[in-house]
Amino acid sequence: MFLFVALFVVPCVVQTASAVDSSYVAAVYEHKVILNPEPRAPLSRRHALQHMQRNLDIYEEQAALAAQQGAQILVFPEDGIHGFNYTRSSISGYLETIPDPQEERWNPCAEPDRYSNTEVLQRLSCMARRHNLYLVANMADLQPCPLKTDPSSPCPSDGRWQFNTNVVFSSDGLLVARYHKHNLYFEEAFNTQPQAEIITFDTPFAGRFGLIICFDILFHDPTVTLVERGVRQLIFPTAWMNQLPLLDAIQFQRAFSLGANVTLLAANIRNDRLIMTGSGIYTPVSATYHHALRGDPEEGRLLVARVPVLDPLWVGQGIATEERVSLGADSSHCHRESCADPRPPAAASTDPTPYPTFTSSMMYDPFNFVFLNETEGELRVCSGTFCCRLQYKWKTQGQRKELYALGAFAGTHTVNGRYALQVCAVVRCADFEASSCGQEVEEAESKMDFMLEGRFETRYVYPTVLASRLVLEQPEKLDKTADGRVTMKHSNMTGGLVTACLYGRMYHLDNE
Ligand SMILES: *[C@@H]1O[C@H](CO)[C@@H](O)[C@H](O)[C@H]1NC(C)=O
Ligand SMILES: *[C@@H]1O[C@H](CO)[C@@H](O)[C@H](O)[C@H]1NC(C)=O
Ligand SMILES: *[C@@H]1O[C@H](CO)[C@@H](O)[C@H](O)[C@H]1NC(C)=O
Ligand SMILES: *[C@@H]1O[C@H](CO)[C@@H](O)[C@H](O)[C@H]1NC(C)=O
Known about the structure:
By secondary structure, the protein is mostly beta strands. It has helices spanning 45-68, 119-131, 220-228, 249-260, 336-339, and strands at 9-13, 23-30, 73-75, 134-144, 160-169, 175-180, 200-203, 207-211, 233-237, 263-267, 279-283, 286-290, 301-308, 323-326, 358-362, 365-371, 376-383, 386-394, 404-413, 419-428, 448-455, 461-467, 471-473, 477-480, 485-490, 497-505. One 2-acetamido-2-deoxy-beta-D-glucopyranose binds at residues 328-330, 476, 491-492.
């Protein structure tokens, strides 16, 4: 089981050649949420408020610390004020009715008497105002809805919507945005709004930001819709349970920011029992992140970083046009010949492979794998017609005591959520059995130079290189071609390789 404790911050900053025109200071807070020990038992508003004020006291301290370091925007995690595992009725005391900032202007700190039962909104608003920063927090919203006799009315039968909600306050305390989570993850206290909301807000220091919450990041709406409308800066409160080898919190945060070419401000909960840790401030060229390790005290962590404002005129093209990007310090471009796949793609699925393949479960999906047994080589493995290719050369002797495999999976993931995938991944196997390939591993010594490539039937491919003990490496080079081929090249690893992955999302097949 993957349970970490040992706190560390690994800032990894790689500057691009082009100077940035403007920048701002962002902060995220990984919060060790104080939980209600009996979330399924009803409690009064007074007791719910007493509980929430304890978390808000910590928010207040962190807002002061962030402001001292010059933060202009501060993000708190999902469920960080109220906690988890309520029922639809037991969460009642925690709910506030949050007015729609698109319909009215309200500064809860300046005008506390406009609405009753809004103590949390008032406190957050005053916090933003007192510390002169934009503040994003997550709370529970109650919206009464008209009960209709019409059975097709979407209003729940008890006449109320209950939403998992992000709220944003400007630096003078004005409520500027409200976003209701669209992709719920086992949250019986909350409703899904029938239509995904696309919510943004504008700031004087960095322009536009878009709002998403936790599980939303894996789906097309609202996340990809925001990016395709030109939103380059996403705010991501989360309560993410880590799962290696492909979906650790920081791993997917890094992958999404790189794949979508956006900045991501990600604030996670810290809770060791629930395997929650991993927050960061990611731009396409830098990452400032935190992931607790085993042995670390269970405590919160504030991250602050100066990041560039991304050009809002650039709209995500995915891989519709050919792109060649050099991300690392090495600016040399690979030559056409050495990058191109010499094999005709049509022959992919029928080609006999010279090495044995096997199937092992990774993240509950049946991946086809081949071992990396040589000191260097070239391998290919397919899942149906989807194929992955790897060129590798070991740089350390670690592989003598560590087994690695290249895996491919094309299909629909169906456990704890349904989403269609095409994935290429190199993983360290947990031991020397084939069935251990795809299991959770967090440490490794083997380093290799490699080129991992897949030909994807989607433009949405999220790349990452994860090294030993939850260290992220910036892939040296990513290439995307118009025909869907994505290539990730990396060398001179600083740590042993845990996972190198191209995570393709086939959003268009999710509902089939
Ligand atoms: C919430 O429920 C899940 C599943 O029942 C359980 O594993 C988890 O420990 C619970 N969390 C809390 C905070 O009680
Ligand atoms: C990412 O966006 C920048 C503009 O901010 C653009 O110059 C660059 O080409 C984009 N990179 C990719 C891989 O699309
Ligand atoms: C990797 O290290 C080798 C040997 O030190 C060096 O020649 C090469 O330029 C490095 N490559 C990159 C991409 O940094
Ligand atoms: C690679 O190594 C594994 C583990 O030692 C072994 O089971 C497998 O047969 C080897 N495969 C090849 C192609 O040598």
